Amino acid sequence: MPAANALSTSLNSTFINQSVARTRLKRAMPEEKAQDSLSIQWRSQEELKELVKEDRPMKVLIMGMPRSGTMSLVAALKQLGYTTYDFVDRIILGHMPLWTQALRAKFQGQGKPWGKAELDRVVKGFDCVLDVPCPFFTEEFLSAYPDSVVILNKRDPDPWLASMNSTLFHVFSWPSWPLLAKLDPGFAGVWYTHCTLTWDIFCSNDYDEKCKQKYLEHYDYVRRVTPKERLLEYEVKEGWGPLCSFLGKEVPEGDFPNVNDKGNFVKAHGMLWTYAMFNAVKNVGIGAASVGVGVAAWWFYRTR
What we know:
Shape: globular
Structural class: mainly alpha
Radius of gyration: 19 Å
Oligomer: single chain
C-alpha cells in the first residue's frame, strides 16, 4: 500500500476512530470541549471518502496563520454550512506528502509548481481551506478559484508568538521526533518531515523575533496579492457580525464558538506522539515492546 494510503488508513483505524483514544481525550479535558474538539477536527476516513466524491466550488480561503483563532473560526464556518479542509483532513487523506512536494516546488525549485490541477486534486469536495501550508499559496488559490474570498484571521504578533511557543513549537521541540521519524517513517516520518520543512521555509525554524517578523510579512503578502473586495481582515473576538456580513449569511443564534485552547492542543499532539511511539516499537520488533512501552511513557513525560 502506498505510504500516503497507509498513513491515512492506520491513523484512522488505530487513532482517530479508536474508542480508547476518544476516552483518553475526554478524560483529559472537560466533556463539552472534548466533544467540540473531536467533532470539529476529526472526520473519519469513511466520511472523508464520501465527502471528496462531491464537487463543491471553492468559496472561502482562510489565509491567516495558525493560533489566530483558527479553530474557533472553523467551528463558526461549519455552523454557517461550509465544508473545511484543514490539517487533520490532510493527515487522514494522505495529503501531507503532496503538500511537502508543493512546498519544495515553490520555495526550493524542486519539481513542478502547483496550479489549479494540483489544487483541485487535494481540495475536491471542500469549499473552504485553512492552516499551513495553505496560506503560503494564497496567490495560487486566488488564481485557481476566482470566485473565492479571503478571510485573513489575525491577532497581535506578541501573543501570537507566545501561543505558538506554548503549542506548535513546543510540540516540535520534543527531542524524540527525529528518532521516531526514522523508526516510524509511515506516520511520524511523514508528519515530521512536512512540519519541519514548513517552518524552515517560514522562519528557518527560528521561533523568536525572526518568526514574529515573518508573521508580519505574511500578512503583508496576503494583503498585497488579494483584491480588496475579496478580503476580510478579521479577529474572532469580533464575533458573528463582520463575518456573516462579508459572507452574506444570516447571523446564527447563540455565541460565537470558542474552541481549541492551548492545553488541549498539546494533549492531542501527545496522543499523536504516543501513536508514533507504538508504531516505532512495532517496527523495531515485538521483542522490544515491553522496553518500548516503558521508554515511551518516560520519554513523553520527560519531554513535555
